[in-house]
Amino acid sequence: MAVIEARNVSKRFLLHRQGASALKVRFLDLIHPSRRIPAEEFWALRDVSFDIDRGEAVGLIGRNGSGKSTLLKTIAGIHCPTGGHLRVPRAARIGTVIELGVGFHGELSGRENVFLNAAIHGLSREETDEIYGPVVEYSGLAHFMDVPLKNYSSGMNTRLGFAVAAMLRPDILLLDEVFAVGDEDFQRRCMKTMQEFGARGTTVVFVSHAPEAVRAVCQRVCVLDGGRVVYDGSVGGGLEHYHALMQATEARRVDADRPAPRPSEATEAELDVAWHRRALGGRWAETGAWQYEFLREQGLLPSQYVLDLGCGSLAAARHLLPFMEPAHYWGFEIDRALFDVGVTIELARVGVPAERGHFIVNDRFDLGDCPYRFDVAIANSFFRRLSLNRIVRCVAATMAKLKPGGRLFATWFDNPNPSDFCPMARPHRVVSYCDGEPFHYNYEMIARACELLGYRAGRVEPRCPHPRGESVLVITGDGAGR
Fold first, then answer.
1. Domain annotation covers residue 253
2. pLDDT digits over 1-21, tens only?
3. Residue 325 belongs to a domain with what CATH number?
4. What is the pLDDT of residues 241-261, one digit of tens each?
5. Is there a domain that residue 319 lies in?
6. Would the pTM of this model clear 0.70, i.e. be above it?
């Protein structure tokens, strides 16, 4: 049975950009609401779902700002989810070492803070007296227990916090970069303690950027990126996925620092190694041309309305926009950076004005801004970027926007054997995964998901094979249609 159960957990923060501190300015803002700068929404977590069993040690890794600490604080009850639900057993004792100073008071001594922290965790005075000696011995701070905590170093602070959490004998232990400020001896003791926790059934959730610590502590890894779980599986696979994310981030940073060539001056060779073409899996130009020819083969007319899902850096748009009547092409994308570079470089390079079509950019699959219904939609190499539940959301949102008889085409990496969870080699030195980008899926799995939505999926054999070796399917409203 799961000790921690998360279902579509989302957490939103409101960022207030108003920086004025003068009393007069604040007073004028109160009586003139129009002067106020509206708060900006920031989603630290988006649709996070997982189960963690009793005695399991799970590592949360990801880039800075990916939502790891927010997720840990949500499990601890410090934050309440904005959406979804997160459940832990009511009687579970949770030990936390989340950040320096949480549960401590700087003006109190180390001794007083031990009793304060134990009281926060529900221990009686007698129970705290019993653990006080072991806490002092474990922390190695016997000579500093009567010193105010504000005079402790960050390492001393962490040692005391971990010692308290360890002696609480928690059912769930939440750790956030606990090794970052500890010395080598302290780290060894922490490792030994966490191995003892695992042996007696304590559940550990561990946030770290240190691969060695993750390998030593965890049996499973969840990789977060942009507030979403993009990988949930083995430690080795998770660290590889994290490394790939960091490489992609570095490639974007290097490209951003490098003076960008003017669109008219850039060569195809220069653009083929740019991040926005590589991010979608290579063979950028061939895949865009294939999509255009495939839709023509399926009978697309300039007067019809087409929805290009996951239009990315507009590889297909540069062909479809000149072909379609004005405003009949609509593109949808979840990555703002990909879309922006598509407009500023790729469309500008071939002299195609973006104003010939319309574009929607969000990560909620919200197509509400479009007043039309589409004759055809296509998700070319889009499903490889989506988890299964996001594919379902994409299909549901798209099918609701199709005309009667409309069709949604999609390409994806097929996994013929649903019981095989190993990475699969693809053409052009690409490897796909069942639990991380680029995703692969069994056809029957996608077809069954469509059937549950009330739609029907079928395979398509195009005249020309997909440049990235992906399979093709079509989804129609021939089912019950919910």
1. no
2. 689 999 999 999 887 655 555
3. 3.40.50.150
4. 888 777 766 655 655 555 555
5. yes
6. no
